[in-house]
Amino acid sequence: MSDRNLRLAIQKSGRLSEKCRDLLAQAGMNFEFRTDRLISRARDQALELMLVRDDDIPGFVKNQVSQLGIVGLNVLEEKLGPSHNGDNPVEIIRRLGFGRCRLSLAVPKAMAFDGISSLSGKRIATSYPRILQNYLKANEISAKVVEITGSVEVAPSIGIADLICDLVSTGATLESNGLREATVLLESEAVLVRPRQELSRAQEDLIEKLLARIDGLQKAKSSKYIMMNAPRDAVYRISQLIPGMERPTILPLMSDDSMVAIHAVASEDVFWETIEKLKEAGASSILVMPIEKIIA
Ligand code: PRT
Ligand code: ZN
User: Fold this and answer.
1) Is 43 a domain residue?
2) Which of the two ends of the chain, N or C, has the fewest CB atoms closer than 10 A to its terminal CB?
3) Nearest Cα to 101, choosing from 172, 12, 195?
4) pLDDT tens string 270-293
5) What average pLDDT does range 74-96 have in this prediction?
6) Confidence category of residue 233, pLDDT binned at 50, 70, 90
7) 265 and 204 in one domain?
């Protein structure tokens, strides 16, 4: 691979794959996805996509087999240790806001749990031995870690562990196995990672371009374009009510000097309560619209 090209590793199939593909498509990176191929090339960029198992992504980025990767924070920390640590060879450059879940300790409903000291001497089943060991060590708890790779939630009922440490999102899996969440060890989401080490100029430029596009999409997602008509003398009061607004555009309305149109970008969602307050302040014909991209 030439150092003008950049490789991004994403999960081939699983909970993160579709969201990763959507993000890349929205960022204008179009690939021919073929699951029978390890690498696909973007149609008009020097970007290559590697479709792999999520567990391999931290190691690939560490060894620069790929220079970017999208992976759950849980997998990153399990494979390479704490992500806020400057010694970690892989650096998080964006949190992506999807694939949210938490790595938690969960106990059988009948088991008493009053704080982490209750874990002393217990057997804990998990697929995340490194994160769990670090947590136990930091809290000076001596417990036995039982490593299993799948169906961790059944471990207490078949008698191989007293409690578990596993990923939770809705909590339905715990509930159906008679378990309850006791403590959260890690809040996770998909993250975009790169090697901490500097890359070639061409690769750094392409990363910067991709980040600008991702930022534009993320900013747009949390913003709204709002338009309304208002009495000229209510403009100041109304502009104060629009959440996170910069300077609005004020336009005259044909054949009514006392009224203007206000157009503004609100950097937060515009809730019904705000719209009701705008109306009370004299605004009418209020339109709130989604924004696709914001480029500063
Ligand atoms: O094949 P490959 O190794 O690539 O995939 P995988 O099977 O290891 O991973 P996959 O696709 O299951 O998950 C990929 C990533 O999605 C995880 O590493 C997390 O970062 C993220 N994620 C988000 C989740 C969940 N939510 C989640 N709920 N990963 C797993 N779960 C499982 C959890 O292990 C438990 O069994 O879902 C169950 C709990 O869900 P609830 O909703 O019942 O609480
Ligand atoms: Zn995996």
Assistant:
1) yes
2) C
3) 172
4) 889 999 999 999 999 999 999 998
5) 94
6) very high
7) no
Protein residue whose Cα sits closest to atom 19 of ligand 1? 72
- Tell me the CA–centroid distance for residue 259 and ligand 2, in Å: 59
Residue 244 lies in a domain: yes
32 pLDDT above the threshold of 80: no
Work out the average pLDDT over 174-195: 98
Ligand number with the minimum distance to the CA of 13: 1
CA dihedral 287, 291, 292, 296 (to 10 degrees): 140
pTM of the predicted model, to two decimals? 0.90
Residue 274 lies in a domain: yes
The total domain count for the chain is 3
90, 76 Cβ separation under 8 angstroms = yes
**Using a 6 Å CB cutoff, which residues line ligand 1?**
11, 14-16, 53-55, 72, 74-75, 99, 101, 166-173, 188
32 Cα–ligand 2 center, Å? 23
Domain housing 228: 223-290
Q: How would you list the strands of the sheet with 190-195, edge to edge?
A: 39-41, 47-52, 6-11, 68-72, 190-195, 90-95
271/240 same-domain check: yes
CATH number, domain containing residue 273:
3.30.70.120
Report the separation in Å between the CA atom of 167 and the middle of ligand 1, taken as the mean of its atom positions: 7
Q: Which residue has the tokens 């996770």?
A: 188
